[in-house]
Design brief:
Tetrahydropterin Synthase, Chain A; four-stranded antiparallel β-sheet; three-stranded antiparallel β-sheet; rod-shaped
Length: 340
C-alpha cells in the first residue's frame, strides 16, 4: 500500500513537471517566439493570448516579449544651433517591439533571456537618439526660444524621429538600417528639456540687463524731455499771465487814479460837503443791519441825529460841524506872497 502511494505521488509529480515543461502562457500584453533547437521560423511567432503547448526544453524553448511602450531617455548633451549658439538638449524616445520574430533574430545573440534582448535594444536606440539630436544644428536659437509666437520644437522632434536609424558596418562598408529592420517601432520622440549652458545663460542675462538699462535710459530721456517741455510751456504761460495781469493792474491803477483825482478835486473844492458825505456814509453803513446803538450825540458824526440838528437851516445850507471847525481852526495860516 505504501509503495502504491509513492508510485502515485511520483506519477503526479511527473505529470506536473511535464505539464510545466510542455505548456506556456501568453498574456494580452505579450508576444512569444517558440524556437526548436534554438532556431526560429515563421511559425514560431505566437501572438494570440492563452495557454500554449510545446515540447520540453531543450527541444523547444519560449522567449516572451512585452509589447507595451518603453521609454529611452538620453542624458543632457550640448548641441550647437544654426546661429552658432550652445544649448543643452535632453530627449526621450517612446518605442515598442513591433515584430517579435525579427526582434528575436536581431538580439538573440545578446543572451537567452528577453531582458538581455531589451537591454541591447535600448543601448542601440539610445546611441542613435544621441546621434539624431544632432539635427538641432538645423535650427536657430530663436526657433526654439520664441516668446512672441509658437516655437519649432515639434519640428525638431519630428527631425529627431526621422533620424533614428541604425548604422551597420559590413564588409562592403557602412550602411543605414531602419529600426523596423530590428523589429522596433519608434512611436514618438519628445524633447524633455532645452537649457542654456551656464556661460551662455550668464551672457544672455548680461545682454538682457544691458538692453533693459538702455531701454530705461531712453524712457528716462524721453520723460525728461517731456518734463522740460511742460516746464517751458508753463513758464511761458506764467510770463504771459503775469504780463497780462501787470498790464491790467496798470490800467486799473490809472483808472483809479483818474477817478480818485476827480473825487479829490471835488473834496478839495468843498471840504465841508466831503466830510458831510463821509458822515452820512458812516451812518448808513453803521445802521445797515438791525441793531441797537447807545452813544452820546457829542461823538463825531452822531451830532446829526439830534432832534434840533437841522433847525434853522436854510435851503442848500450845510449843518455846522464843530469837529471840522475846530480841526480847521487848528491848521496854520497859509503864507501869502512876500512871506506875510
Amino acid at each position: 500500500m505504501k509503495r502504491l502511494v509513492i508510485i502515485v505521488l511520483a506519477g503526479v509529480l511527473l505529470v506536473v513537471l511535464l505539464a510545466f515543461s510542455m505548456t506556456y502562457q501568453v498574456r494580452f500584453t505579450e508576444a512569444a517566439v517558440l524556437t526548436t533547437f534554438g532556431k526560429a521560423s515563421d511559425d514560431s511567432l505566437k501572438l494570440d493570448p492563452g495557454l500554449k503547448f510545446k515540447w520540453p526544453s531543450p527541444i523547444q524553448s519560449v522567449t516572451k516579449y512585452d509589447t507595451r511602450l518603453r521609454v529611452v531617455q538620453t542624458r543632457a548633451q550640448t548641441q550647437q544651433t544654426s546661429d552658432n549658439r550652445q544649448i543643452i538638449v535632453e530627449a526621450a524616445c517612446f518605442w515598442r517591439v513591433k515584430d517579435p520574430l525579427r526582434f528575436f533574430e536581431r538580439f538573440s545573440v545578446a543572451g537567452d533571456r528577453s531582458a538581455d534582448h531589451f537591454r541591447k535594444a535600448q543601448e542601440i536606440i539610445e546611441s542613435n537618439l544621441r546621434s539624431a539630436i544632432g539635427t538641432t544644428s538645423k535650427f536657430a536659437m530663436s526657433d526654439l526660444f520664441n516668446v512672441a509666437g509658437p516655437t519649432k520644437l515639434p519640428d525638431l522632434e519630428k527631425a529627431i524621429l526621422s533620424g533614428l536609424v541604425v548604422r551597420e558596418t559590413t564588409a562592403g562598408g557602412e550602411k543605414t538600417v531602419s529600426l523596423a529592420d530590428y523589429g522596433i517601432e519608434a512611436v514618438d520622440v519628445g524633447v524633455t528639456r532645452v537649457m542654456l549652458p551656464e556661460e551662455t545663460t550668464k551672457a544672455v542675462f548680461e545682454r538682457m540687463g544691458a538692453s533693459r538699462d538702455r531701454l530705461a535710459a531712453e524712457i528716462e530721456a524721453k520723460g525728461q524731455a517731456v518734463a522740460q517741455a511742460i516746464r517751458d510751456t508753463a513758464e511761458n504761460e506764467a510770463r504771459m499771465i503775469r504780463a497780462f495781469a501787470e498790464s491790467r493792474a496798470q490800467e486799473i491803477r490809472k483808472q483809479g487814479d483818474r477817478e480818485a483825482a476827480t473825487y479829490l478835486g471835488q473834496m478839495n473844492s468843498n471840504p465841508e460837503l466831503a466830510v458831510f458825505l463821509r458822515r452820512m456814509e458812516f451812518l448808513r453803513d453803521a445802521t445797515a443791519k438791525r441793531m441797537t446803538f447807545v452813544f452820546p450825540t457829542s461823538m463825531p458824526g452822531f451830532d446829526l441825529v439830534k432832534p434840533d440838528s437841522l433847525n434853522g437851516l436854510k435851503k442848500g445850507q450845510i449843518p455846522e460841524m464843530p469837529v471840522l471847525d475846530r480841526a480847521l481852526s487848528q491848521q496854520p495860516a497859509k503864507q501869502t506872497e512876500g512871506g506875510q
